[in-house]
């Protein structure tokens, strides 16, 4: 089963971020799923196969880098676009995210308008 190009998974341990991004993308017509940790995200990934994934770096138990590597090790997610969202904005943090398999690394605070445009551009290409 391949990814669903019009669906988005938002993984962040901060409820305000998952809720606000979910609302933002749902108003654009996308199906959104949210997870507060890697375990919840892995369950959603098994069932839903979103085409776009936003991952926080700092999460309890398993961080976003590890989750990103796990996602990239699954052939069914080869076409999924992963964007890391993090307050950690050093060059080494960005490098770690890209090495883990993320397509992009965006630092918090982020511009919601920019994320909405990115999501539209990415999902239209899938």
The gist of it:
The protein is of the alpha/beta class and 126 residues long.
Commentary on this structure:
The protein is an alpha/beta fold and 126 residues long. It has one domain (4-125): Rossmann fold (3-Layer(aba) Sandwich). It has helices at 15-26, 38-48, 64-72, 91-100, 112-125, and strands at 4-11, 31-35, 50-56, 81-86, 104-107. The chain has a five-stranded parallel β-sheet with strand order 2-1-3-4-5, sandwiched between helices. Strand 3, helix 3 and strand 4 form a beta-alpha-beta unit. The radius of gyration is 13 Å and the shape is globular. The two termini are 15 Å apart. The mean pLDDT is 92.
Helical content class: 40-55%
Task: Note the gap between the termini.
Answer: 15 Å
Indicate the CATH topology.
Answer: Rossmann fold
Structural class of the helix and strand makeup? alpha/beta
Q: What is the top-level CATH class? A: Alpha Beta
Q: Any idea how many domains?
A: 1
Secondary-structure blueprint:
Layout: E1 4-11, H1 15-26, E2 31-35, H2 38-48, E3 50-56, H3 64-72, E4 81-86, H4 91-100, E5 104-107, H5 112-125
Parallel strand pairs: 1-2, 1-3, 3-4, 4-5
């Amino acid at each position: 089963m391949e990814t669903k190009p019009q669906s988005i998974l938002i993984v962040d341990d901060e409820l305000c971020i998952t809720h606000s991004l979910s609302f933002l993308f749902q108003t654009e017509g996308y199906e959104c799923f949210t997870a507060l940790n890697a375990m919840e995200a892995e369950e959603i990934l098994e069932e839903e196969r979103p085409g776009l994934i936003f991952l926080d770096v700092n999460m309890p138990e398993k961080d976003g880098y590890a989750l990103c590597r796990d996602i990239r090790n699954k052939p069914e997610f080869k076409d999924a676009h992963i964007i890391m969202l993090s307050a950690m904005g050093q060059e080494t943090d960005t490098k770690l995210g890209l090495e883990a398999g993320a397509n992009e690394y965006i630092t918090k605070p982020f511009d919601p308008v920019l994320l909405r445009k990115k999501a539209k551009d990415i999902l239209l290409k899938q």
